[in-house]
Structures are given as C-alpha cells and as structure tokens.
Sequence to fold (470 residues):
Amino acid sequence: MFSSLFTIMRHEILMTMRQAFSWLTPLLFFVIVVCLFPLALGPDTDLLNKVAPAIIWVAALLAILMSIGNIFRSDAEEGYLDLLLLSPVPLTLLVLCKVFSHWMTNCLPLILISPLLGLLLHLNAHEEYALIITLLLGTPVLSLLGAIGAALIVGIRGHGLLLPILIMPLYIPVLIFGTGTMMAANANLPINGYFAIMGALILLSLASAPLLTGLALRIGVNQ
Amino acid sequence: MLHWFNQKFLSPKTFYTTSSSLLPWFIAAFVLCFGYGLIAGLFFAPADYQQGDGFRIIYVHVPSAFAAMAIYSVMAVSAVLTLVFRIKIAAICMSCSAQIGAWFTFLALVTGSIWGKPMWGTWWIWDARLTSVLILLFLYLGFIALQSVITDQQNRDRAGAIVAIVGVINLPIIHYSVIWWNTLHQGPTISQFATPSIAPSMLYPLLAMIAAFLFFYAVILILCMQNQILLREIKSQWTKEVLCYDY
Fold:
C-alpha cells in the first residue's frame, strides 16, 4: 500500500515539476500581488512594515486558492480519478498524498520566497522568523481545506468563483492567527502560543479534511 | 430496523400529512409568543438605566441571532442524517433551513448595527463576535450558492451536507467569542447554567421573543419543506391527490 502511495506522490510531483508553469504561476501571482501594495500605498517604510503581514498572508491565501481549485479537475477529465476511486488503497490516504504533493509544489515555493518579500516590506529578523514559521504551519491547513472545496466542485463546470465563496470563510481562522502572530512579533510579544494554536489547526484539518474530501470526490465524480 | 423506521415515519408523505396538522398549532404558538413578547417588551419592561429605551432592540436582535445559530445547528444535524442515513426529509430540511437561516443572520447583523450606532458610536466594528456572525452569513451563502449550481438532486443534497458539516466549526467560535476575546460586544445575558444577568421583567419578554422567532422558523420551514416535497414527489400518486384536493 505504501509503495503505491509513494508512486502516486512521485508521479504527482514529477508531473508538476516537468510543466514548470504549473508551479511557477502561483509563485509569480504571489510575488506580483505583494508588489502591487507598495505601489498602491506609497513607499512609506513604517506603513509598509505595519501592513506587511496582512499583505503577504492575503496574497498567499489567494495564490493557494487559485492553484488548489484544479488539483482534481484534470484527473477527473482524464479518468485518472475514477481509477483512484476504484483502487484498494483507502481514498483518505490518496487524498492526503495529493494534497501533500500540492503543498510541496505550490506552497513550499511561496514560503521559500517569502523572506525576500518580507525584506522588500522592511520586516526585521524576528518578524521574518515569525513569517516563515506561520506560513509553514498555516499553508498545509489552507491546502487541506481547499481540497474539500476542489473536490466538491470537481463535477461542476463554469463556476470558477464558487470555490472562493465556499472556502474563504474557512480560511479566516488561519488568516487571523497567521497575521496575529506577525503582529505579536512586531510588538516583541511572545509568539509561541500562536504557533501552538496553528499547530492545533493543522491537526484538526489533518484529521477531518482528507475524509471529507474523499466523500466529496465520490459525490463529485457521480455528476 | 432503521430503514423500516425511515419508511414508516420519515417518508415524505407521512411528513407532509403530519406537518399539515401541526402547522396551525405552530402558527398559534408563534402569534401568542410574539404578541406577548412584543407588547411586554416594548411597553411593560422598564427602560435600561444606561441605554434608556434604546435597549429595546434586544427583543429583535438577540432572538434573530439566536435563531441564526440554532438554524445552523439544525442544518448540521440534518446534514449528518443526510450523509449517514440518507433520509430524504433531512436533506429537504437542510436546504430550506439555509435560506431562512441566512435571512435571520442578515437580520441579526442589521439590528446589531442599528443598536451599535447610538451605543458604541459606530455602525460596525471588527469585533470578534460581529466578524464571526458575518462569517456565518458567508457560510450560509456559500451553501446556497453550491446547492444552486448542482442539478442532480442526490448530489446536491450530499454536497451541501458536506459544506454544512465543515462550517459547523464556526458555531462554538461565535458562542465563545465574547468570552475568549474581551471586546466591545457585551457578554452573554442569558445562559442555561448561570443566573441570568438581566431583570425578570426584561427577561420574560426576551424569552418569549426567542420562542416566537423559533416558532416562526418552524412555520416557514414546514411550508418550505411541503413545497419541496411536492416538487420532488410530483410524479407520485399521493401528490396528485393532495394537489387536486387543495385546488
């Protein structure tokens, strides 16, 4: 079972890596959205430093939302998804595999480039540290929750804006705690408590999201 | 056993006839509670020592907020019944509740905003409870949006059920938001376990109004569900008999 899971994961990551633009597009989107804000707000250092957490977090959230909407779509069109549903490996684990490879290819690049963007928005070293840790803890939750929405809309055509409406309300807690950590770091307050809460969010979504995504996929493929 | 129970008591036809006979009682209960709550709340309850007569909006605000959350709980329970036991009535109850619940949430936000202007000096504040109720409204709207684009009946029910179950995480957040985050919104006035922090002359009309809103929900829910049942079962014999009898 684990060998087949490993094969699927390897296949997913290889497929994404070989089409460079399928993982570069979310990254470019993220960078460009972040760069728009200094242009719109003006080059005031204090102001940028203050709104940097909000800008980076909202941009990351949008980038992930845009990329996760399609994780099941091409599989469903090619019939690959039907094979996954028929396979003896538990669907929950397959979903977890797919979400993890999405995170590896789409979220990890965002996290790697975020210190550079933080530098552009005048974050200090302590805030950069908080930014990287919160993104590391927060983006898996975004991927896991987004997968539920992606699975629900897999059989629906021409309603691209439905996914944000369904998923955004669920992203709000992550956004609140992510930016809250950054603001606490900005005020030199202890931030380990925030990390613990975000860790709890990961565990909660790990336990529930793959199950619900599997259920939603079975419904979506019926359509 | 469960299947038998489902067939016997939860079939759309049984529900239709039972709810039709219950409907007048719910309407009567609504009129009684609403009449008492409105008159006692607006005329007999004393004015608040701080907020004056302005506090009387509580008789609309608290019941609609309470109903908004209660209806989401009903939706979540129906969602579980839909997914696990595939009870048709539960699925119908879920989609009808969503529309009513969205309106109650909207009403709670609007009355809260009207209350906030004279008391807090602002129409809106990004306070924990206000924000979480706003999220509740988005959850309701997301549910309605998803259900409106799926054409197949069974898939619509089950996909909606998943969204409803995922969104249930917001309910405890709303409930405890005023306790966890000490912000502008006042703490809970009435609770099941503690002595209420409100005078009885103000409390009883409030409880009556909450009951009235819930009875109103029940009335609208029954009417909406009967409509849905007739639509879904349009081809069966008993539906034709009901429709011919009615008109």
